[in-house]
C-alpha cells in the first residue's frame, strides 16, 4: 500500500518545498499537492508567471527525496451557485491547477463538484457541463480529473445531505455521462 499526504496546512508553515520535504521525512510514499489553502491567495506562485518553475522545483525536490506527486486537489470551492463572477475567475484557476498538476507529474486532480442543494436536476446538468468543459485541459496536461463525492449542510436544521455525487446513484448518473478523462474519486 502506498500512503500519500496533502501539502495543505504544511505549506502554510513551511512553504511548498518545505511541505514536500516534511512529507518525505515523515515517511510517506506519495504527495497530494493541495490547492485548497491557496484558492483565494491570488499572489501565490501557482497563479503567477513562475508557476512552471515552481512545478519543476517541487517535482525535483520530491524525486530527490525518493517520492513523487500522485495526485492533487484543485482549488475549492470549484464554483458557487449563481455567482458568475466567482465562477469565471475560478474556471481560470482550475485550468491553471490542472496544468500545474500535470507539470508535477500527478496522475489525477480531484475537482469538487458543484452542489445545488435541493435542485438535483440542475446539479446533474451543471456538473456535466462543468466537468466536460475541464476534461480537454486534463487530457492536454496528461492527467485525469477525479470527481469527489460531496455533501452539504442545511443551515436551518444542521442536517448533512448528500451533495453532488453524494450517493451511488448520483455518482453513477453523472459518471456515465462524463468524458472518459473524468472518473470518480471517493
Write structural notes for this entry:
The structure is a single chain. This protein is an alpha/beta fold. The chain has five helices and eight strands. It has helices at residues 10-25, 51-64, 84-104, 120-141, 168-176, and strands spanning 4-6, 30-34, 68-73, 108-111, 144-148, 151-153, 160-162, 182-185. A six-stranded parallel beta sheet has the order 1-2-3-4-5-8. A two-stranded antiparallel ribbon has the order 6-7. Strand 6 (151-153) and strand 7 (160-162) form a beta hairpin. Helix 2 crosses helix 3 and helix 3 (84-104) runs parallel beside helix 4.
In short:
With 186 residues, this protein is an alpha/beta fold.
- Structural class estimated from helices and strands: alpha/beta
Across the major sheet, the strand order is 1-2-3-4-5-8
| Gyration radius, in Å | 17 Å
Low-confidence spans: none
Distance between the termini: 17 Å
Which geometry do the CA atoms define? Answer: globular
Mind describing the biggest β-sheet? 6 strands, parallel
Order of secondary-structure elements: EHEHEHEHEEEHE
- Proportion of residues in extended strands: 15-25%
Helical percent range? Answer: 40-55%
| Count of DSSP strands | 8
Amino acid at each position: 500500500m502506498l500512503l500519500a499526504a496533502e501539502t495543505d496546512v504544511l505549506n502554510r508553515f513551511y512553504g511548498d518545498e518545505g511541505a514536500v520535504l516534511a512529507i518525505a521525512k515523515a515517511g510517506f510514499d506519495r504527495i497530494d499537492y493541495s490547492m485548497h489553502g491557496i484558492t483565494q491567495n491570488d499572489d501565490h506562485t501557482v497563479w503567477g508567471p513562475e508557476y512552471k518553475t515552481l512545478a519543476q522545483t517541487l517535482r525535483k525536490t520530491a524525486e530527490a527525496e525518493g517520492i513523487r506527486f500522485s495526485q492533487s486537489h484543485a482549488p475549492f470551492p470549484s464554483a458557487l451557485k449563481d455567482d458568475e463572477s466567482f465562477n469565471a475567475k475560478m474556471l481560470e484557476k482550475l485550468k491553471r491547477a490542472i496544468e500545474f498538476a500535470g507539470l508535477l507529474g500527478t496522475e489525477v486532480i480531484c475537482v469538487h463538484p458543484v452542489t445545488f442543494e435541493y435542485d438535483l436536476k440542475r446539479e446533474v446538468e451543471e456538473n456535466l457541463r462543468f466537468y466536460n468543459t475541464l476534461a480537454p485541459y486534463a487530457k492536454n496536461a496528461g492527467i485525469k480529473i477525479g470527481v469527489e463525492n460531496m455533501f452539504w449542510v442545511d443551515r436551518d436544521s444542521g442536517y448533512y445531505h448528500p451533495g453532488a455525487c453524494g450517493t451511488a446513484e448520483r455518482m453513477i448518473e453523472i459518471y456515465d455521462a462524463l468524458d472518459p478523462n473524468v472518473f470518480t474519486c471517493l
